[in-house]
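Much of what follows relies on a compact textual record of a protein's fold. A record is reproduced here so that you can trace the correspondence yourselves:
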Amino acid sequence: MARSLGGGTAPGRWHSGAVPRLDYDPAQLGPDIYPLLNSVVVPRPIAWVATRSPEGVDNLAPHSFFTISSVTPPVVQFTSVGPKDSLRNALATGEFVVSVCTEELLEQVNITGTDYPAEQSEFDAAGLTREPSRLVAPCRVAESPVALECRVIGTKDFGGGSVVVFGEVVWAVVDERVLQDGRPEIELMRPVARLGANQWSTIGQVTDHRRVPYAEVVQS
């Protein structure tokens, strides 16, 4: 029997080879597969998503299902697991802003993940400063060194409560103090990432590894 992540059992366990593995059947686990995926796909960058409701309330929430979708045009995506304010506001207004979450701001980022009522702004709850955006209504987080202003260009609903929101980056701002040789430097930004359960991580040791062209590979 294959154990579920919640400690129960589900049919379909099998082993091959000598490696002691525990098998999981997503069809049997359903939503209970979340902690497995959340613990394996790590570390995850965090989109600190700012939206503004149709009533004018500034919402701010961290979303760790976040990545780049396209370069030309520049598109980023975040996933709302469940019908959260970020999703409702982005769908209603067509706009959102992603700010970078840093070590210095970790506690404030965590606070904005609380399920505040929709009429309460997380900017105020976390003591953060609103910085007006240039092309969209939602505010940037003034304390964050980087912000991406986005307009919604599409969504993907998988039917199980998770909706991916795609936003074209229409404007970007970077604090000059985190720039090095014309690009944001990770050691200066000090971003944080999400891991499994309640775990977070900092950048740790950073190493450089140049991508090796095929011509050099065949010559070695």
